[in-house]
């Protein structure tokens, strides 16, 4: 199966991608992991990305596309993959289509995780992290620590990341709506999109996604 996972910030894409990739025994390919791997390995594409990032600029599409194509050609992706964060715009989606056609491959499904904007803001703006970098995450509404502002595990101070403020979250959502959301209509025109509610428990959302993937697989067998 070759799958694209789409959804706004706070929809739980990373969590769902990890579960789905494990269930399907295919690699989870995320843009963040691509950047980190190429930069740490010192690849030519990684060096280019690092230069742009160090200068405070967005990494150009052609660099991101190059990284994604290299990763999709690795042996562990020969039986399929799950893309998370790529493509992020129409240009990248068209480049992905061209790449797949060139290798006589195609996408099987595009899963669109849907969550109300106010829920996204509440999820992200309420998030609190441990300053000791213990990896423990709390929430101001539904996952409170025993002692306000203190990590249950290590006693570290809890804080809100600057990127998690409501103002910043709404700006990120505006970018998503203008740049990434259009790819949903692009893929819907190809009959690939299933929209899934991202509300509920992680397991509930995963089950919805797996049912959509199974339906997509059955449709591919019949066509």
What's the gist of this structure?
Monomer. Its EC number is 2.7.4.3. The protein has helices at residues 13-24, 31-41, 44-54, 61-72, 90-102, 117-125, 166-180, 182-188, 202-222; strands at 2-6, 28-30, 81-84, 109-114, 127-130, 137-139, 158-159, 193-197.
Itemize the secondary structure elements and their pairings.
Elements lengths: L1 E5 L6 H12 L3 E3 H11 L2 H11 L6 H12 L8 E4 L5 H13 L6 E6 L2 H9 L1 E4 L6 E3 L18 E2 L6 H15 L1 H7 L4 E5 L4 H21 L1
How does this structure look, described?
- Helix 6 crosses helix 7 (166-180).
- This protein starts with a strand and ends with a helix.
- The chain is α/β, with parallel strands linked by helices and 223 residues long.
- The longest helix is centred in the C-terminal third of the chain and has 21 residues, at 202-222.
- It has a single domain, classed as Rossmann fold, CATH 3.40.50.
- A hairpin with a 6-residue loop joins strand 5 and strand 6 (137-139).
- It contains 9 helices and 8 strands.
Spell out the key features of this protein.
single chain; Rossmann fold; alpha/beta; 223 residues; three-stranded antiparallel beta sheet; 8 strands
Termini Cα gap: 15 Å
The quaternary state of the protein chains shown equals single chain
Q: What structural category arises from helix and sheet content?
A: alpha/beta
CATH topology: Rossmann fold
- Quote the beta fraction: 5-15%
- Helical amount: 40-55%
Given as residue ranges, the uncertain stretches (5+ residues, pLDDT < 50) are none
CATH-level-2 architecture: 3-Layer(aba) Sandwich
Give the beta-strand count. Answer: 8
Question: What can be said about the biggest beta sheet?
Answer: 5 strands, parallel
């Amino acid at each position: 199966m070759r799958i694209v996972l789409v959804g706004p910030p706070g929809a739980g894409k990373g969590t769902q991608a990890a579960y789905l990739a494990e269930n399907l025994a295919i690699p989870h390919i995320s843009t963040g992991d691509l950047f980190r791997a190429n930069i740490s390995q010192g690849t030519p594409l990684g060096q280019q990305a690092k230069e742009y990032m160090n200068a405070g600029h967005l990494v150009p599409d052609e660099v991101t596309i190059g990284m994604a194509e290299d990763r999709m050609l690795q042996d562990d992706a020969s039986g399929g993959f799950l893309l998370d964060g790529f493509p992020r715009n129409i240009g990248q989606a068209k480049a992905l289509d061209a790449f797949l056609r060139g290798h006589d491959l195609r996408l099987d499904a595009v899963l669109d995780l849907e969550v109300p904007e106010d829920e996204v803001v509440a999820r992200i703006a309420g998030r609190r992290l441990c300053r000791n970098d213990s990896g423990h995450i709390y929430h101001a509404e539904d996952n409170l620590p025993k002692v306000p502002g203190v990590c249950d595990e290590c006693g570290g101070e809890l804080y809100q990341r600057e990127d998690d403020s409501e103002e910043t979250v709404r700006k990120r959502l505006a970018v998503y709506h203008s740049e990434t959301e259009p790819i949903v209509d692009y893929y819907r025109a190809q009959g690939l999109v299933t929209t899934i509610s991202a509300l509920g428990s992680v397991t509930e959302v995963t089950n919805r996604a797996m049912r959509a993937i199974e339906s997509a697989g059955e449709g591919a067998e019949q066509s």
